[in-house]
Amino acid sequence: MNKGKHGRTFGRKRDVRKAFLRSLISAVLLEEKITTTQARAKELRPLVEKLITKGKKPGVQTLRYLRRHLSPELAKKVTGEIAPRYETRHGGYTRIIKLAPRRGDGAEMAIIEFV
Which among 36, 77, 87, 108 could bridge 40 via Cys, Cβ 3.0 to 4.6 Å? Predict the structure, then answer.
């Protein structure tokens, strides 16, 4: 039985999916607002919020953790610019705004951005 399965596969194998999500995370952190499909935005939100929550705690361990998941420039941006904005906030750093369906294939589109 396949009980307890969670997370979207996006029709990709595990390594390709992880790289795909990592590139989406980098785009959100770099641009601070991207337009993507609703499913991708919903899958992306908890990953981005966990990185920001981790970035709020000062220290070398935090920077090492972020550099393992992001490029060094993005890790510095998270700890230096993005995380201090949400110092008094306990989660909920991103919002998803639904848009009209995409004309080509009718996929539900959304904007994911920082609050």
Answer: 36
Handedness of CA 61, 64, 70, 72 (dihedral sign): positive
CA gyration radius for the chain?
Answer: 15
This prediction's pTM: 0.92
N residues, the chain: 115
pLDDT tens digits along 51-65: 999 999 999 999 999
Q: Please give the distance of CA 58 from its chain centroid, rounded to a whole number.
A: 20
* Residue 108 near residue 101 (C-beta atoms within 8 A): yes
- Asked if residues 80 and 56 have their Cβ atoms less than 8 Å apart, the reply is no
Q: Backbone phi, then psi, for 33, in 5-degree steps?
A: -170, 120
Residues forming beta bridges with residue 98, ordered by sequence position: 110
DSSP string of 80-100, one letter each residue? IIIHHHTTT--S--EEEEE-P
